[in-house]
Amino acid sequence: MDRQPWLKRVDREMARQGIPIGVRCRLLAEWRDHLVDLMEEGNSMAEIDLKMGEPLTVAADAATQHRLSGWAQSHPLLAFGIAPIPLAVVAFVGIVLLLELVFGGIAYLLYGDLDNLPRPVTERIVYGLHYSVRLLPFVLLSAWFTRLFLRSGVRRVWYGVAMAQVLLLAGTFMSVLTISEIPGESTWKMGFALAASPSASGWMLQYLPAIGWDQVSQVAVTVVMAWTIFLLSRWRQQPSAAFAA
Amino acid sequence: MSTRKENDFLNGIPEMLLLRLLGEEPMHGYQLVQSIKQATGGALEFGEGSIYPVLYRLEAEGAIRSCEEVVKGRNRFVYRLTPGGAKRLEKSVANWERIAMAVAMVLKGGRDGSPALA
């Protein structure tokens, strides 16, 4: 017979089913109170086990209810099918604005006048923005959808749909920065290689051949972030952590 | 015609009972379990531990809210029905009555006078 206490067995199973630690702690606190009430009523340990229910069943119920409680679970088409592109736009604009504020703020604090920054400083800021917009939006989207998938417990196909869109964006986003020594000649172009543009023979995907190692690195960083979130979630779901909390 | 959502409703009996009881007065989990037993005369058998995940979901969905209160010298999560929960309860009860009536009609004999199921 398994002599492990009821709470510990439920917690171990909840952790195995991927319930986040915050939810587990709250439920464990409730069950702990309930067990105390049952003991105060004079129930034996065997009676308490019987009344509380089979640990595996209770943990499965907890997992089901947790998944049902999420918006993403009840609206997977919106959350995973439609949201990625609008969210990418929001992430991109938000990151550009935030970085401009941060870089501009630092430069202002250091030099006091943003219009007459030393050229090396301006170049560093522009390069910082260039690499940030190439990587950060996709890393954030990858982290967001991986966490949402893990927390909501939707079918894998929905996660696949969302990540396919994120990877497509990451794999086709282009940011081309050309710094020139001649004033006014430096250029910074951004766009998606999948965007069709007019040419003499009609609309063409003329930027597609320009996809190269930059885009490979954008995809790689996006995948690595998703993988890291998976590994972290496994590590955080060790049962002992929640039980001790 | 029955929809998938309506069929899912058949699994929502504990939820309806919890909302109904919380509509009468705020209660903590153990009180709720005792109230269900009392109200149903012990007819519904369930693992008492399974009540809390349902309460957690109802709270996440905004149908109930909880706050920590001292009850008989112990800190307890006391649950209350929200206005949204009250509306949800009304719908659940109406659906349940419709389903119960439909089942009763089949068991007692249909509108056309066809015999009841054996």
Write the layout of secondary structure elements.
The complex is a heterodimer of chains A (245) and B (118).
Chain A (H helix, E strand, L loop, with lengths): L5 H11 L4 H20 L4 H8 L2 H14 L2 H4 L1 H7 L1 H28 L7 H34 L3 H17 E6 L8 E6 L4 E3 L2 E3 L8 H24 L2 H6 L1
Antiparallel strand pairs in A: 1-2, 3-4
Helix pairs in contact in A: 1-2, 1-4, 6-9, 7-8, 8-9, 8-10, 9-10
Chain B lengths: L3 H6 L3 H12 L2 E2 H12 L10 H10 L3 E8 L2 E8 L1 H26 L10
Antiparallel strand pairs in B: 1-3, 2-3
Helix pairs in contact in B: 2-5
User: Could you tell me the mean pLDDT of chain B?
Assistant: 82
> What would the average pLDDT of chain A be, to the nearest integer?
84
Helix proportion range of chain B: 55-70%
- Overall structural class of chain B, as computed from helix and strand content, comes to alpha+beta
Number of β-strand runs of chain B = 3
User: Which blocks of ≥5 consecutive residues of chain A have pLDDT under 50?
Assistant: 239-245
Provide the structure class of chain A: mainly alpha
Biggest interchain interface, per-side counts = A-B, 27 and 20 residues
Number of distinct beta strands of chain A = 4
Beta-strand portion of chain B reads 15-25%
Biggest sheet details of chain A: 2 strands, antiparallel
Topology pattern of chain B, helix = H, strand = E: HHEHHEEH
Figure out the total of helices of chain B: 5
Distance from N terminus to C terminus of chain A (CA atoms, Å) equals: 27 Å
Structural shape of chain A: elongated
Helix/strand order of chain A, N-terminal first: HHHHHHHHHEEEEHH
